[in-house]
Design brief:
By secondary structure, the protein is of the alpha+beta class. Strands 1-3-4-5-2 form a 5-stranded antiparallel beta sheet, covered by helices on one side. The protein is elongated and about 60 Å long.
Length: about 150
């Protein structure tokens, strides 16, 4: 089990393998982001995307799926997340792309009001098969401390 005390600023990880399918792009868009360029080849051809592209929110969901799958291999004493910072969709994601994630811990601090938990921030990037960054964000994770009375 990984606790707050086990997290090191500067620690890096690379993980995930997510194959983006046309069917999933269209199904996600139909339910959550029904803009024409996510649903129609013809409409997408008329935009800067040039072809059918995944919703940015779908890219977030695919990234989350890879993050959670990675957590299964390295079980954390996680307590969820208070959110993300600086979300950017850097490049379109297309059917046929294969995504992966890279992350680096950039900060951590113990909660002053709740010493049984800490917060860590990670630069998180999702890349396609050409190593192009398609999503970038700072993720915030809450995690249990092993020793609620301890110091950083």
């Amino acid at each position: 089990m990984l606790y707050y005390e086990d997290i090191a600023v500067g620690a890096k990880q690379s993980f995930g393998h997510y194959e983006v399918t046309r069917e999933e792009v269209m199904a996600f868009a139909a339910k959550f982001d029904p803009q024409p360029f996510h649903l129609s080849d013809e409409a997408a051809a008329e935009t800067h995307f040039g072809r059918l592209s995944a919703s940015g929110w779908h890219t977030c969901a695919m990234t989350m799926a890879m993050l959670v799958e990675n957590m299964k291999t390295q079980v954390q004493a996680g307590l969820g997340s208070p959110g993300i910072d600086n979300l950017r969709w850097k490049k379109p994601v297309y059917p046929g792309d294969t995504l992966r994630v890279e992350s680096e811990v950039i900060e951590k601090r113990r909660s002053q009001s709740r010493p049984e938990m800490g917060l860590f921030k990670s630069n998180t990037r999702t890349l396609n098969q050409n190593d192009e960054v398609v999503l970038e964000m700072v993720s915030n994770g809450l995690i249990r401390t092993r020793d609620a009375g301890g110091a950083d």
